[in-house]
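Researcher: Re-running this chain for the archive, since the previous output was lost when a drive failed. Same request as before.
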Amino acid sequence: MIKQQCCARLQSNLGPCTRRAVVERDGCFYCKQHDPEEIEKKYQIRLLKWREDHEIKIELSRRWAAETKACNGVPTETLESISVKELLDGK
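Model: Regenerated structure tokens:
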């Protein structure tokens, strides 16, 4: 088998990738880094991680807004003296 070169073009007009191709997709040969399926798989992993992080940030933002609304107008000294149990029991 003839060793094929990756058909990907590098950004910034640096020319073609010089790595040896390891997979063929739709008639083009790609190295592992430029394999379209690998690129898509890595993108989906990054997207899932971003969504998880984003959901956490949204929840923290909602919690902060609820806490701020609930404590609006209550003096700081009063808030500092209330224990969590008192808040939950409604005392």
